[in-house]
Design a protein that fits this description.
Layout: H1 6-15, H2 29-55, H3 57-70, E1 74-80, E2 82-85, E3 93-101, E4 104-107, E5 113-118, E6 125-126, E7 131-135, H4 138-180, H5 186-225, E8 228-230, E9 235-240, E10 247-248, E11 263-266, E12 271-278, E13 290-295, E14 302-315, E15 320-327, E16 339-344, E17 350-351, E18 355-356, E19 369-374, E20 379-381, E21 384-390, E22 396-400, E23 402-407, E24 410-415, E25 422-425, E26 437-439
Parallel strand pairs: 1-26
Antiparallel strand pairs: 1-25, 2-19, 3-12, 3-16, 4-11, 5-7, 5-10, 6-9, 7-8, 9-11, 12-15, 13-14, 13-16, 14-15, 17-18, 19-24, 20-21, 21-22, 23-24
Helix pairs in contact: 2-3, 4-5
Protein name: Acriflavin resistance protein
Family: Belongs to the membrane fusion protein (MFP) (TC 8.A.1) family.
Keywords: Coiled coil, Membrane, Transmembrane, Transmembrane helix
C-alpha cells in the first residue's frame, strides 16, 4: 500500500526552516540610511557640547560645581586662628567661660497669691528691701484689723482690772485696821483678802491674753508683709518673670502650679567669669592670680581680672576644674551669660595702668600682636607645617605656615596667617585644595 503525499510533506517542512544567510526583509538601503543619520546627529551634539565648554570655561566650572553639589560633602570641624595683643599673648593658661554676677536670684513671694501690681521693669536698678511686686491681700488687711481690735480689747480689760485691784487693795487695808480694832470678824477679813487675791490673779490672765492678741497682730502683719515681694539685695532687674493678674506660689514650676518668681535681679557691679580649666594646666592657676578677660560682645577691650576662687572639685567627664575670675573694672556694657575668654597671666605680668601683678615695681606695658592656633589644626610631614583654611564657599585651601612658641594646647603662628581664619581641626587623606566641605556648627 502506498502512502500518498509523503513527498509533499517533506517539502513543506523544508520551507519552514529559517535561512540565516538571507537578508532580513525591510533591512535594505532605507534602514542603513536611518542608522547613519542617527549616528551623525549624536556625533554632532557631542561635538557642539565640547566646543561650547571649550569656549566657555565658566560653564565647565559650573558643571563641575553641580557635580560636586550632588556628591556628599565632607564634614569638618573648624577652629579659629586667634589674635592676641598685649600681655594676654604671654598668658600661661587660656580658658573660656561665661559672665555671671556674684549675686543673682529669682525673686518670688513667700506665700501663694495673685499679683496685684508689678512695680519694676527690666533694666531698673533697685535697692535692698525695695518693693518689686504686690500680691492681693484684702483678706489679710481684714484679719490684721480684727487682730488689732482684739488686742485693743485686751488692753481695755487689763486697765479695768487694774482699777479693780486698786479698789480691793484699799478694802483689804481697811479690813486689816478693823480686824486689829476687833470690829470685824476673821471671816469678813478673809473675804476681803480673797477678793484682792482674785483680782491680782485675774490681771495675770488678762496680761497673758493681751500678749496672745499682740502676737496675733504680729502674725497678721507678717502674713500681710508676705504679700510684698522685696529685693533681698541691691541690683538690676534683668528679667520680668510674671505679669499682673498671674498666680504665684513658692516653688511654682509652671502654669499648672503657678509661677515661682516675679523678677530676676543681679548685682551687675560685681561680675565674674565662670570658666573651666583643663586638669593638665590647673597647677598654673592660683587664687589671687592676675588675669585679662576678653568679652566677645566688647571687641578691642580687655578687662582686669583676678582669680577669686578655684573650686576644689573636678569634672570627671570633661577633665576640667572650675575657676571663678572676678572682674575689677566691669562697666555697663557687660551682662551675665556673655561669652568670655580668660588669659591667666604669669606672676610678673602687668595689669591695669602698669602695676605688676606680683606687687613689684611698675613696668611699662609693651603692646604686641601675636597669632595662635590650636594644635589640632596643624598638619606636619617631614619639615613642612601647614593648615587647611576654610575659605570662600567653604572650600579648602592649603596654607604653609611657620610656627613659634607652643603653650597650653596652642601654637604661635609666626608667618602664614593674618588671624581670624577658619582652620580645619584634624586631618584626612581626602583633603585637597578647592575641595568643598560642610562646616559642622
Amino acid at each position: 500500500m502506498t502512502v500518498a503525499g509523503s513527498g509533499g510533506s517533506g517539502d513543506a517542512l523544508s520551507k519552514l526552516r529559517i535561512r540565516r544567510d538571507e537578508p532580513v526583509r525591510g533591512g535594505g538601503w532605507l534602514g542603513r540610511f536611518v542608522r547613519l543619520l542617527v549616528t551623525v546627529v549624536v556625533l554632532a551634539l557631542l561635538g557642539g557640547a565640547a566646543w561650547i565648554f571649550s569656549r566657555s570655561p565658566g560653564m565647565l566650572a559650573d558643571a563641575n560645581r553641580l557635580m560636586e553639589s550632588v556628591r556628599t560633602k565632607l564634614e569638618v570641624r573648624v577652629v579659629l586662628a586667634s589674635v592676641e595683643e598685649g600681655r594676654s599673648a604671654d598668658a600661661t593658661v587660656v580658658a573660656t567661660g561665661y559672665l555671671q554676677s556674684r549675686q543673682q536670684a529669682r525673686i518670688g513671694a513667700r506665700a501663694t497669691g495673685r499679683i496685684e501690681a508689678v512695680l519694676v521693669e527690666e533694666g531698673v536698678r533697685v535697692a535692698a528691701n525695695d518693693v518689686l511686686a504686690i500680691l492681693e491681700h484684702a483678706d489679710l488687711d481684714a484679719s490684721l484689723a480684727a487682730a488689732k481690735a482684739s488686742a485693743a480689747r485686751c488692753r481695755s480689760e487689763l486697765l479695768e482690772q487694774d482699777v479693780l485691784i486698786a479698789r480691793t487693795q484699799r478694802d483689804l487695808q481697811r479690813a486689816e485696821k478693823l480686824l486689829a480694832g476687833r470690829t470685824m470678824t476673821q471671816a469678813e477679813f478673809d473675804t476681803e483678802k480673797f477678793e484682792y487675791d482674785a483680782a491680782v490673779a485675774r490681771r495675770e490672765s488678762l496680761q497673758a491674753a493681751l500678749q496672745l492678741a499682740e502676737a496675733r497682730v504680729q502674725e497678721a502683719e507678717q502674713l500681710r508683709e508676705n504679700m510684698f515681694v522685696r529685693a533681698p539685695f541691691a541690683g538690676t532687674v534683668i528679667s520680668k518673670d510674671a505679669e499682673l493678674g498671674e498666680s504665684i506660689m513658692p516653688g511654682g514650676m509652671g502654669e499648672a502650679s503657678g509661677r515661682g518668681s516675679v523678677v530676676t535681679i543681679a548685682d551687675l557691679e560685681h561680675l565674674e567669669v565662670d570658666c573651666d580649666v583643663k586638669e593638665d594646666f590647673i597647677s598654673r592657676v592660683q587664687q589671687g592670680q592676675a588675669a585679662e578677660v576678653a568679652v566677645d560682645a566688647v571687641p578691642g577691650r580687655r578687662y582686669r581680672g583676678r582669680v577669686r576662687k578655684v573650686i576644689p572639685m573636678g569634672d570627671r567627664a570633661r577633665a576640667t576644674v572650675k575657676v571663678r575670675v572676678a572682674l575689677e573694672d566691669a562697666d555697663e556694657r557687660l551682662f551675665p551669660e556673655m561669652s568670655s575668654t580668660v588669659y591667666f597671666l604669669p606672676a610678673d605680668a602687668v595689669v591695669g595702668d602698669g602695676v605688676a601683678a606680683g606687687g613689684g615695681q611698675e613696668t611699662k606695658v609693651v603692646a604686641g600682636r601675636r597669632i595662635f592656633c590650636p594644635n589640632d589644626a596643624l598638619q606636619t610631614m617631614g619639615g613642612d607645617v601647614w593648615v587647611w583654611v576654610v575659605g570662600a564657599e567653604d572650600r579648602l585651601k592649603r596654607v604653609v605656615v611657620q610656627v613659634g612658641e607652643k603653650k597650653e594646647g596652642r601654637t604661635e603662628i609666626v608667618n602664614g596667617l593674618a588671624g581670624g581664619e577658619r582652620l580645619v581641626a584634624g586631618s584626612s587623606a581626602e583633603y585637597r585644595d578647592g575641595l568643598a566641605v560642610k562646616v559642622l556648627q
